[in-house]
Amino acid sequence: AQSVSQHNHHVILSEAASLELGCNYSYGGTVNLFWYVQYPGQHLQLLLKYFSGDPLVKGIKGFEAEFIKSKFSFNLRKPSVQWSDTAEYFCAVINTGFQKLVFGTGTRLLVSP
Amino acid sequence: EAGVTQSPTHLIKTRGQQATLRCSPISGHTSVYWYQQALGLGLQFLLWYDEGEERNRGNFPPRFSGRQFPNYSSELNVNALELEDSALYLCASSFDRVKYGYTFGSGTRLTVV
Questions:
Q1: How high is the mean pLDDT of chain A?
Q2: B46 to chain A nearest CA, in Å?
Q3: In angstroms, rounded to a whole number, what is the distance separating the alpha carbons of residues A74 and A89?
Q4: How far apart are CA A44 and CA A36, in angstroms?
Q5: How far apart are CA B93 and CA A44, in angstroms?
Q6: DSSP string over B2-62
Q7: Taking 80 as the threshold, does the pLDDT of residue A3 lie above it?
Q8: A27 neighbourhood in chain B, CB within 8 Å
Q9: CA distance A87 to A36
Q10: pLDDT at A28
Q11: Residue B63: CA count within 13 A, CB half-sphere
Q12: What pLDDT sits at residue A15?
């Protein structure tokens, strides 16, 4: 079965620190990949997605992610986090054979001012 | 464009009762997905409806059921509520899930006492 792993369940950073959240998936075929963010008390929002082309994808609020096919990874990065980035981040994967998006278990990020 | 709307925002029920949660997708979206977000468990897939039909269900007991109406809105019913059903229930809709992923609603917080 397809699965998505987010190894960092909780991450605590100070403002201005760099962020990298890991995401690995288990599927050998062609996939599309997504990162969603859930700010406290808000709904899940799409942060960025990879569909095809340049494996380095830029999203909203200065986030980016790199698709490395050989490593089955789609790690999320931000050079300098802000307090307002405190949220839960979910990685998700889908391909045309999937009937639904498969989500990771999420990573809670706390940025201290 | 109106987003995915869910009602009610909060719902408190006692054990053994039934709960009904509602979801209206974005106009033009024909697929509706239901997820359960329980503390520490990430997003657990519940049900997928498309064009009025149930297409897939997750690993949940039969007391979790739902339907999709001709206008593509959807209802999730949970019978014989148990304490562990307390969670945030998220509805999402999509037009082309492979290309664009999902758009989520703000959820219904169900508390079973």
A1: 91
A2: 11
A3: 13
A4: 6
A5: 12
A6: ---EEE-SEEEE-TT--EEEEEEPPTT--EEEEEEE-TTS-EEEEEEEETTEEEEE-S--T
A7: yes
A8: none
A9: 10
A10: 72
A11: 10
A12: 96
Contact (CB<8Å) B103/A42: no
Q: pLDDT tens, A77-94?
A: 999 999 999 999 999 998
Report the Cα–Cα distance between both ends of chain A, in Å, rounded: 41
Is pLDDT larger for residue A5 or for residue A97?
Answer: A5
- State the DSSP H helix or E strand holding residue B98, giving kind and residue range, or none if neither: helix B97-100
Q: Pairing relation of β-strands A107-112 and B5-7? A: unpaired
Q: Which two tokens stand for residue A5?
A: 């792993």
The B residues from 37 to 96 touching A (CB cutoff 8 Å) are: 41-43, 45, 48, 55-56, 90, 92
Taking CA A33 as the corner, what is the angle to CA A11 and CA B104, rounded to the nearest 5 degrees?
A: 80
**Interface residue B33 vs chain A (CB under 8 A):** yes
Q: Is the pLDDT of residue A98 over 70?
A: no
Q: Give residue B51's identity as a one-letter amino acid code.
A: E
